[in-house]
Design a protein that fits this description.
alpha/beta, TIM Barrel, Oligo-1,6-glucosidase, domain 2, Immunoglobulin-like, 3 domains, eight-stranded parallel β-barrel, six-stranded antiparallel sheet, about 25% helix
């Protein structure tokens, strides 16, 4: 199981209101108690923080707000001592506009690093070279005119994040050196940001109208610009794989809508393991959940292993999108599917989006509500900080926190802990086959997981009324887990009736 930590918001060790690396190290035991195998750290690199660490001025330095390289080393050592692996974010598509590489690139059209970024002459009439748009809804065109040299530079995100030119071999080697630097410091893998954007159309042709103007829903109510990935991206990703070796986890952010094109990023086991975004834009209904998994299973290449996530730092929180009852059901789905589950910090508690007043807003794309501080206890700073937190802590933190939920047997946190323990001891749930039951009842989503003689049924009822589950084998099975903390476990009732928004796990005796 993977767990994402957003460093600004996980734990503050020095009382300045911003999370840091020492704070993360001091809270690793929560991850061990939860049952985490590896932790992914969002960026902590030197940055002006226009996009909070995704605009980098030095890929091999730690921003002082988070600590030092020695703090990274201490965190990695402490994680390894607890049996946890560490993944760090690598941001290969772009840098900060304050990066020394870009400063040199924009200094002159004759600069030795001019071709390290994507530059182009103005289009007809003196405007941008083409109709490409930034992925951020508020950022407009993906081009900014540089007055000093009279050309436009490309930025897939904010104007403070110019895109690197991956067709330049020197750029590729420079990023390879960044990967080697972190591997030598002991990290175990990387989450590769915006991997699908590394190669651009070399002709800089206009996007078709349905791409140039249509922004697709990343989550219900949110939007992102569609992106046409280029075939050449697979070659550069195979080079990255060769640099890090076959055993280093490369977890890829692949923002490609077409499932078949998305699955191509597995390569032949020589590219990435793509993070699966299939749940992010779907409602929390049984039909939508079933369809998401069926689509994934249909496009996976031979040997392909899915990595499912229900949330991350770019999305509205799971409990906000789905509600508290279906957040429990979604936890069962995530932790019983075939594949590796990834949990976003705080989702194991049921943390929700926190309203952020305009004067306190920090993020250029409006994602602050899903990035608020981790809620550790009921103290004024929620155990996150002794100072003033960088984003607000909600009143609900008095009950939705690690300490309170750890003591409550029926809490969401303890449901996650029970599911992860069950997964660890169950060969069927860890590595077994996945076989969905025919969707005879549109309100139910049920599937078998099987490994050897162990056969487990998972059934989910994401509706507002009860449903009966009656596949062969359940009447002689054992009820291992339910999202209803009051349901007795043990011998499976016959018939098995699920309450509204209930999910169960049953081990069959047949």
């Amino acid at each position: 199981m993977l767990y994402q930590v957003y460093p600004r918001s996980f734990a503050d060790s020095d009382g300045d209101g911003v999370g840091d690396l020492r704070g993360i190290t001091g809270r690793l035991d929560h991850l061990v108690d939860l049952g985490v195998d590896a932790v992914w750290l969002s960026p902590f690199y030197a940055s002006p923080m226009v996009d909070f660490g995704y605009d980098i001025t030095d890929h091999c330095a730690v921003d002082p707000v988070f600590g030092t390289l020695a703090d990274v080393d201490a965190l990695v050592a402490a994680a390894h001592a607890r049996g946890l692996r560490v993944l760090v974010d690598v941001v290969p598509n772009h840098t900060s506009d304050r990066h020394p590489w870009f400063a040199e690139s924009r200094s002159s059209r004759d600069s030795g690093r001019r071709d390290w970024y994507v530059w182009a002459d103005p289009g007809p009439g003196g405007g941008p070279p083409n109709n490409w748009l930034s992925a951020f809804a508020a950022s407009g065109p993906a081009w900014t005119l540089d007055g000093r040299t009279g050309q436009y530079y490309l930025h897939s995100y904010t104007a403070a994040q110019p895109d690197l030119n991956w067709q330049n071999a020197a750029v590729r080697e420079a990023v390879h050196d960044v990967l080697r630097f972190w591997l030598e410091r002991g990290v175990d893998g990387f989450r590769v940001d915006a991997a699908h954007r590394l190669v651009k159309d070399p002709t800089l042709a206009d996007n078709p109208a349905d791409v140039a103007h249509l922004r697709t829903a990343l989550v219900p109510g949110g939007t992102r610009l569609r992106h046409i990935d280029q075939p050449g991206v697979h070659e550069v990703l195979r080079e990255v794989r060769a640099v890090v070796g076959p055993d280093t986890l490369l977890l890829g952010e692949i923002g490609v809508a077409d499932p078949t094109r998305w699955a191509a990023y597995y390569g032949s086991g020589d590219e990435l393991v793509p993070l699966n975004p299939t749940f992010w834009s779907r409602p929390c209904t049984t039909d939508a959940l079933r369809s998401a998994v069926d689509t994934t299973e249909a496009v996976l290449p031979p040997g392909g292993w899915p990595v499912y996530a229900l949330g991350n730092h770019d999305l509205s929180r799971l409990a906000t999108r789905c509600g508290s009852a279906r957040a429990r059901l979604a936890a069962v789905l995530l932790l019983t599917l075939r594949g590796t589950p990834l949990v976003y910090y705080g989702d194991e508690l049921g943390m929700t989006d926190v309203p952020v007043p305009p004067e306190a807003a920090r993020d250029p794309d409006g994602r602050d509500p899903a990035r608020t501080p981790m809620q550790w206890d009921a103290s004024p700073g929620a155990g996150f900080t002794t100072g003033r937190p960088w984003l607000p802590i909600p009143p609900t933190a008095g009950t939705v926190n690690v300490a309170a939920e750890r003591a409550d047997p029926g809490s969401l946190l303890n449901l996650y802990r029970a599911l992860i323990r069950l997964r660890r001891r169950s060969p069927a749930l860890r590595t077994g086959d996945y076989r969905p039951l025919p969707p005879t009842d549109p309100g139910l989503y049920a599937y078998w997981r099987q490994a050897g003689d162990q056969r487990i049924l998972v059934a989910l009822n994401a509706t507002g009324r009860s449903r009966t589950v009656a596949p062969p084998g359940t009447s002689t099975g054992r009820l291992l887990l339910s999202t209803d903390p009051d349901r007795p476990l043990g011998e499976c009732p016959d018939p098995l009736v699920l309450a509204a928004d209930e999910a169960v796990v049953v081990e069959s005796d047949r």
